[in-house]
Amino acid sequence: MRAIIQRVKEASIFIKDSLHASVKEGLLVFVGIEDSDNRDDIEWLAGKIVRLRIFNDHNGIMNLPVTEMQGEIMVVSQFTLHASTRKGNRPSYIKAAKPEIAIPLYEAFIHQLEMEWNRKVKTGVFGADMKISLVNDGPVTIFMDTKNKE
């Protein structure tokens, strides 16, 4: 699994020109799933995201996780995180899981986040054409890959 985690002041998802979901201060998580992803990837990534200390404490130091600052989390599926640009100029998405594999893993990931965080996670719609509006705070943007845990 790959994820782009952005610390946001606000974020919104629009589908067919209608507001689908929005969050105020918190995390916007774009997640890409590949065929080899499994329960271990879900648990590792969800745990890391919930405990990621990227919010400022009272001294202005990034020291707080989303759980301590009462922020919100929004998750958006994004198969393009598995784009390969090795050959030519047209990205290949061969590593991105097909919907029959990706949807159950995506739903399990959301469920795991909710269990770790003990709050509801807002989401997009898997496979939908979404317009995402966000105000990145910092900017703070973190990339994680469960196959390359740095």
What would you give as the CATH superfamily? Answer: D-tyrosyl-tRNA(Tyr) deacylase
Residue fraction in strands: 35-45%
| Total E-strand runs | 8
Radius of gyration in whole Å, from Cα? 15 Å
CATH fold label: D-tyrosyl-trna(Tyr) Deacylase, Chain: A
The overall pLDDT average reads: 95
Question: Termini, distance in Å?
Answer: 14 Å
The shape, in one word, is: globular
**How many alpha or pi helices?**
2
CATH architecture tag: 3-Layer(bba) Sandwich
Q: Give the count of structural domains.
A: 1
N-to-C series of helices and strands? EEEHEEEHEE
Please estimate the helix content.
Answer: 10-25%
Low-confidence stretches: none
CATH class: Alpha Beta
Structural class: alpha/beta
Largest sheet: 6 strands, mixed
Describe this structure in words.
The mean pLDDT is 95. The protein is globular, with a radius of gyration of 15 Å. The longest helix has 19 residues, at 99-117. It has helices at 39-51, 99-117, and strands at 2-15, 18-23, 26-32, 55-56, 62-64, 72-77, 122-123, 130-145. Strand 1 (2-15) and strand 2 (18-23) form a beta hairpin. It has a single domain (2-145), classed as D-tyrosyl-trna(Tyr) Deacylase, Chain: A (3-Layer(bba) Sandwich). Strands 1, 2, 3, 6, 7 and 8 form a six-stranded mixed sheet that branches. The chain has a two-stranded antiparallel sheet with strand order 4-5. Helix content is 21%, strand content 37%. The protein is built from two helices and eight strands, in the order βββαβββαββ. By secondary structure, the protein is α/β, with parallel strands linked by helices. Helix 1 (39-51) packs across helix 2 (99-117).
